[in-house]
Amino acid sequence: MAQNRQEINLVVITGMSGAGKTVAMQSLEDLGFFCIDNLPPVLLGKLTELLEQSSGMRKTALVIDLRGRDFFLSLFDSLDRLEKHHWIHYQILYLDASDQVLVQRYKETRRRHPLSPEGTTMDGIRLERNLLDEIKGRAHQIIDTSMMKPVQLKERIISRFTATGENTLTVTFQSFGFKYGVPIDADLIFDVRFLPNPHYVASLKPHTGKDSDVYEYVMKWQETKQFLDKLTDMLNFLLPHYQREGKMSLVVGIGCTGGKHRSVAVTEYLNRWFRDTEGTRVAHRDIEKN
């Protein structure tokens, strides 16, 4: 049975309060990691059993910090026991920032430091640094977020934990009919109602843009070809920029009057064009409506 165990990639996120652990966890969650916040280290053994039984936790991330107080002291014993499970590969990600930046961040959020409920923020920071000194020494990677904005930290995390060749941006091309309303989750919307309409061709009207005769009708016009040339060129420019900014999903809405013919055909074309270079999906919201 041992040889059938799936290998688990486990990331333990820890570090100074205010240094960006929440952003790091959310970034890993966007990458498909199963994330657990503020797990007491004593429960790592139970988590190991769960990882062994589950097929959906191949990538798992834990935030473990001093909110667990006394529980945190058991972290090293728990990590030592974890190393006995050779099918679990773990690494410690430690987030840090300068004292001055941490103080400023607490002032901006108007929150108390978790280790200084009665004292000053600086008292809590000094105590936390002292308590975290050993785990920092065992960290596989340390990121100083002093000069980083949240989006920059997210970009760093995504770059660090994305496997080579793995698509981090999923593009959904969605057709829709304007008569039924604009999709509220669309990031970009393009109107193709200027194209010749198969609705007015009796033999094509009952069919959809997924059918070859309708698709070929929409694609044969010079204005369709010019539009698609310009649109694919613009999307080729935009998609890498969205990805670099840390966006994980993008919905491109293509609309015609009823969402059955022109928008469907153009959406199918775009999916075929980009599917070899991007993670793409197709959705036809109104294709079945009369």
From TrEMBL:
Q: Does the keyword Ribosomal protein apply?
A: no
- Pfam entry (one): RapZ-like_N
Q: Which residues bind GTP?
A: D65, L66, R67, G68
What positions does the domain RapZ-like N-terminal occupy? 8-163
MF terms in GO: ATP binding; GTP binding
Q: What keywords are annotated for this sequence in UniProt?
A: ATP-binding, GTP-binding, Nucleotide-binding
Question: Is this entry keyworded ATP-binding?
Answer: yes
Domain (RapZ C-terminal) spans 170-288
- Annotated residues that bind ATP are located at G15, M16, S17, G18, A19, G20, K21, T22
* InterPro entries per UniProt: P-loop_NTPase, RapZ-like, RapZ-like_N, RapZ_C
Query: Out of the domains of life, which is the source?
Result: Bacteria
Q: What's the name of the protein?
A: UPF0042 nucleotide-binding protein
